[in-house]
Amino acid sequence: MERVGDARGLVLGYVDALNAVDAAMRTAIPSLERLADVLGLVRSHRIINRSGQVGTYSYTVHGAGCRFVSDNGTEVDVDFAPDGSEIFDLWRLRQYGLSLPEPLDLTDQDLQTAVRSLQPPLTEVRPGWFSVAS
């Protein structure tokens, strides 16, 4: 049972870390209306590079998302749905857990149970992919 509690804490920690990334990026780049706009800045306007440093985060834009790494090494990888909402899967949650200063290695089953127990505020937007409800 403790592993499910750990998994819930990890999922909530990921959401908090994602919110912190969003706040830091919006502060550093005032033209951002939402975190997904990073993709457009890289692809269309060439305002920022595909990878770089913003505040205490390094970032790398990839495919449909972006990977952010804080100055303490904590990794938050997120994809963006066509509507610009932030989405994540169990792999991204697991990578986040492994990157923590005190790594937490949980099984997909532990994470799946935790994510399902957190609906709401989480929503499964497509099989295996989750978003924080607005």
Taken as a percent bin, the fraction of beta residues is 25-35%
> Helical region count?
4
- Taken from the alpha-carbon principal axes, the silhouette is globular
Indicate the low-confidence ranges by residue numbers: none
Described by strand count, sense and barrel closure, the largest sheet is: 7 strands, antiparallel
Mean pLDDT: 91
Could you give the order of the helices and strands? Answer: HHEEEEEHHEE
Helicity, as a percent range: 40-55%
Q: Largest sheet, order of strands side by side?
A: 1-2-3-4-5-7-6
Task: Specify Rg, calculated over alpha carbons.
Answer: 15 Å
**N- to C-terminal separation?**
29 Å
Question: What is the count of β-strands?
Answer: 7
Q: Given the helix and strand composition, which structural class is it?
A: alpha+beta
